[in-house]
Design a protein that fits this description.
Helix content is about 55%, strand content about 5%. It is of the alpha+beta class. It has a 4-stranded mixed sheet with strand order 2-1-3-4, with helices on both faces.
């Protein structure tokens, strides 16, 4: 087995790559990165000085592959499976890459801002930044609602890398900033994502760590019950 994914089971960006791996049943070895452990943290910084997770290591060519979208493209190029997460058509590729970045930048990033603000020390919160994050999520939810009239998945009829990005972003975002009842397409899409075996496996593996999520009290009870 040549692939090792350095990750933490609670991290949403790690979920994105795990979904891609599980969709194609790609063999890999998970390796926990514990930033509270100086040895684990130092080893990861040496691996990727930016210090972000996940990071993929391919021992077959001794290559470190950072950044989630690049990892998924790398897997498709070098370890293809039965589910092509990036289409062959050049136009559709642009759509997939656009919506992949959309979920990362306009759903995951503001969601993480909201979560991080809750655990800041007293007097160090950022009310203005928090309001901006909630407003960004409102904007993003509206755009997703409109886009989903094109098909069951975010770019049409086929599950892609963009949907791998969508699930972890929406999973946590809809907890910290519920989408409301006026977005039926968004909520229907979220349920379709939750029904995929790859997604249920990822969330099941993350469940033991949900107790550390700063908005744990707002997490729907169904996510605390067995998913697989």
């Amino acid at each position: 087995m040549s692939l090792t994914l350095h990750l933490h089971p609670l991290a949403s960006f790690c979920h994105k790559v795990l979904i891609a791996l599980y969709e194609n049943e790609t063999p890999f070895e998970p390796s926990l990165v514990d930033f509270s452990n100086p040895g684990s943290a130092t080893a990861h910084i040496e691996r990727w000085p930016v210090g972000k997770i996940p990071v993929l290591h391919d021992s077959a060519c001794n290559r470190v592959v950072p950044e989630t979208s690049i990892m998924i493209e790398y897997l498709q190029q070098h370890y293809p499976g039965p589910v092509p997460l990036i289409p062959d058509d050049a136009g559709l590729q642009l759509d997939v890459r656009l919506w992949d970045r959309f979920f990362d930048l306009y759903v995951s990033v503001p969601m993480q801002k909201i979560v991080a603000d809750r655990i800041r020390p007293e007097g160090a919160t950022d009310p203005h930044g928090l309001a901006e994050a909630h407003a960004t999520l409102d904007m993003a939810y509206g755009m997703i609602e409109g886009q989903l009239y094109t098909g069951p998945w975010i770019t049409g009829e086929t599950f892609t890398m963009a949907d791998c990005s969508a699930l972890p972003a929406l999973f946590f975002a809809l907890i910290v900033h519920p989408g409301g009842d006026d977005r039926p397409q968004l909520h229907g899409y979220f349920e379709r994502l939750l029904a995929r075996p790859s997604v249920r496996r990822v969330l099941s593996e993350a469940q033991p760590y949900f107790k550390f999520f700063p908005y744990r009290e707002a997490m729907p009870a169904r996510f605390l019950e067995p998913l697989v």
